[in-house]
Every structure is written in C-alpha cells, then in structure tokens.
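During the no-cost extension, the postdoctoral fellow (Dr. R.K.) reprocessed legacy sequence entries with the updated structure-token encoder. One reprocessed record is reproduced below for audit purposes.
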Amino acid sequence: MGQKKLLRFAAIKTFTNVLEYPKDMQGKWSSFFKNKNPLVLELACGRGEYTVGLSQLSLNKNFIGIDIKGNRIYIGAKKCLDEKILNAAFLRTQIEKLPDYFAGAEVDEIWITFPDPQLRTSRAKKRLTHPRFLRLYKQLLKPDGFIHLKTDSPDLYKFTKRVIDLYKLILIEDIDNVYANCKQEELKIKTHYESLDIAGSNKIFYLKFQLPETIIDIDNQLQEILKQEENAD
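Re-encoded structure tokens follow.
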C-alpha cells in the first residue's frame, strides 16, 4: 500500500465525521447529527463529491457517504471538516452490510451515483440496482422513500429501467440526458469519475423511483432475459 494511502487511512481514524464499521448505530443517526432531519445515503460514494454537494444544497437534511475505500472517503470527509459542513458524514463499510448500521425506515433517500455498471451478464447481481440490493434498501428506507440513480452507463440505465418495469417499481422521474433536459441543482453536481466519462457516452442518465411494498422474486427470470439478450448480440 502506498504511503499516501497509509497516511489517509491513519487520518480518517481521527476524523469525527468518519465512522469505520461502527457498532450499535441502528436508529441512532439522529443523535449523531444532533437533529431529526431526513437521512440521505450515497452508496459507493468514492471521493464524496456528491455527498458534499448535496449537503451544501440541502442544509435541512443529513447525508452519509458510504464506501469501503477509506483513502477515497478521506477527500470528502476532510473537505467537510475544513469547511465546517456539519450535515454530512461518511461510513466505511460494505454496502451488503447496510442493515447492520441502519434501522428499519430510518433512511429517507438513497443516491447511487456513477456505480460500477458491472457490464458482464454474469456479474449482473453486483449491479447496485439489481433486485437483491433493492431488497436490502427496502429494509432501511421509509415506505415513501426515494432511490436516485445517476450514471453515464446506458447499459446500467436500461437495465434499471427493465428492473423497474419487471418488478413493478414506482418510477417518479426518467431523464435520458441530464444536462440537456434538467435544471435541478442536485443533478448538476459532478463527481471526479463523471468528468472522466469512462463510459464514453457523453450523456448522463437519471432515474428516480420508489420500491413497492413487496419486491417479487423473479430474479431467475431476469437473469434468463439478460442471457438471451447477450446471446442475441
């Protein structure tokens, strides 16, 4: 591990706005933030640009950026400390372990910003909008909570729309070219990876949706559809 990473890992252990695998935090985030404002998560937050940007736009909400890579979290966490941003924090853990840290219906919104699209069909279950993750989010979200996806991957965008349709999720907003068709300030925040345009699409896609009361289990059917499409290509 490089010296810079080692220094950052050591630094975040001293940061008051970073929690690494904390215990007994379920239902206690209002105490951590010292208010009862709505709680918003950013998953796979990377450097935390979106967590920081959202916290600056919405002072009446609390934001938590979640990632496993502490050296990336360091950047956003240090910015918040330097600029005295009090409504943002960072949690270092795996996304699969979210129920260990949040109580049922404790979370108001979830943002998924530029996640790895996991393009191979064999890795579809690792996509953060796959139903196996949606069931995880269902455990944390309030019944009327929102999920936001912002991505430069047309494949992940199409996959998520397919999931929304097949699993009868509640689509609130669908934008296939964010910067051409949207004036919402929260969608104008740019991350480091967005600026790289890894997908080469030159377009940013956005979906906002809610989960139904029950997420049906037709995952095998979904996987079969994906395999058929892959073979057709």
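The chain has nine helices and eight strands. The longest strand covers residues 141-151. The remaining legacy entries will be reprocessed before the final report is submitted.
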